[in-house]
Amino acid sequence: MSLVLYWHPMSSATPIACALAELGLPHERVKVDITTGEQRRPAFLALNPNGKVPTLTVDGAPMFEALAMELWLGERYGVERGLWPAPGTPAQLQAFSWCTWAYVTYGAQLVRLQAARDMGTPDDAHGRAGREGMDQLLALLDAHLAKRPWMLGEAYSLVDLSVGSVIGYSAYIGAPVDQHPNVRDWLARVQARPAMQIEA
Ligand SMILES: N[C@@H](CCC(=O)N[C@@H](CS)C(=O)NCC(=O)O)C(=O)O
Q1: 38 lines ligand 1 (CB under 6 A)
Q2: Which of 6, 18, 65 is nearest to 164 (CA)?
Q3: Which domains does the chain have, with CATH numbers?
Q4: This protein's superkingdom (predicted)?
Q5: Model confidence over 102-160: pLDDT tens digits?
Q6: Ligand 1 centroid, distance to 77 Cα (angstroms)
């Protein structure tokens, strides 16, 4: 199967590049310079009408949205590598739930802070509300991680990579995890994985 990742450094494509590395999957990388508008070229829009990275092609067939790629990579390649739960197990239900939680529920708070930052007013009402919303969700995550070392239990999985990528980015833009020691320690372990060190 041929995989091509369209990416830009330090972007939403980064977790996908890391997941491909964690899975040890051979693939081609095509850099799309989103600072010069390459993402709006017709050839790229034909792959992803949103004009965004990441975009992944699988034997030439395109897919978009990082969350969709993470779930698909887990299902397609993760199970056989011990990095994703087997179909039909309770752990698989948790995998879908937590990855979606990170991108959708936590992500909804994250974008409020991101928007405030982009406006140059990270401490305005939106920024504060976003940070508060994330803090409440981090408390929930902290309670989850108090009972298990990794998101799904005793073993690292791509769920840690997905959730950790979102939480790591939010910490980077100003929603620290220091008040949540289980999250803080888990995030450090996730970020120490060799696959997270690649240039992406
Ligand atoms: N929800 C999308 C977000 C993708 C996204 O916002 N990508 C940004 C880079 S972080 C992008 O390509 N921006 C280019 C643009 O908006 O023109 C996903 O998860 O794939």
Answers
A1: no
A2: 18
A3: 3-81 (3.40.30.10), 90-197 (1.20.1050.10)
A4: Bacteria
A5: 999 999 999 999 999 999 999 999 999 999 999 999 999 999 999 999 999 999 999 99
A6: 24
